[in-house]
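Researcher: I'd like a candidate sequence for this fold, 206 residues long. If you have to choose between options at a position, lean toward the conservative one.
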């Protein structure tokens, strides 16, 4: 079966934590292809007020051949065209097929709230969950993550793989604040994304 990865997010802006996770996702899960899908309206957090077309273009730049990705990685505008709230189960249903095995990548915060998502059982039915640990975590935090993984697998039938990546202590919300305050964030962004933000004066940058 074809192994297709799904990596969604607001990507406002896409940073090196995202691109590093995507590379590990491709490698560790031995994916045949990977879809990067910017959300239109995320159901679990407030969307940052920026034109979705800018988010889409930045995502395309971040995951382009210029940044070291090949044709196996595609940025999809599916959720932006569909509009409305971007429910994960609907996206998985759209890309599912009898000859394809889906792998859904999520970070720690997303992983710990999966039960609260719309139709979580459908998400677990349609895809394997891949948890990427992108941040340093205390032993107590790791214990909670492990316990939650066991619960989802035993009680809800989830199939879960834990994937560790090199910790990068940065988030998109922090980057937006830093850009707005005039700080140099170039080391956290793909060069093409950094240039695009400056050219288009995004996030109130000058």
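Model: Candidate sequence:
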């Amino acid at each position: 079966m074809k192994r297709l990865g799904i990596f969604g997010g607001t990507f406002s802006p896409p940073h090196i934590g995202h691109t590093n996770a995507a590379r590990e996702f491709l490698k560790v899960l031995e994916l045949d292809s990977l879809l990067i899908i910017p959300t239109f309206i995320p159901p679990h957090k407030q969307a940052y007020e920026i034109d979705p077309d800018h988010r889409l273009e930045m995502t395309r730049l971040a995951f382009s051949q210029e940044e070291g990705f090949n044709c196996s990685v595609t940025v999809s505008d599916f959720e932006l065209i569909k509009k409305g709230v971007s429910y994960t189960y609907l996206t998985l249903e759209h890309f599912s097929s009898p000859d394809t095995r889906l792998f859904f990548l999520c970070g720690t915060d997303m992983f710990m709230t999966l039960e609260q998502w719309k139709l979580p059982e459908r998400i677990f039915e349609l895809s394997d969950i891949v948890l990427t640990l992108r941040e340093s975590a205390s032993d107590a935090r790791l214990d909670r993550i492990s316990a939650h993984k066991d619960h989802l697998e035993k009680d809800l039938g989830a199939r879960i793989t834990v994937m560790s990546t090199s910790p990068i202590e940065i988030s998109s919300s922090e980057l937006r604040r830093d850009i707005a305050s005039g700080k140099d964030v170039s080391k956290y962004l793909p060069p093409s994304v950094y240039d695009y933000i400056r050219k288009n004066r995004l996030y109130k940058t000058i």
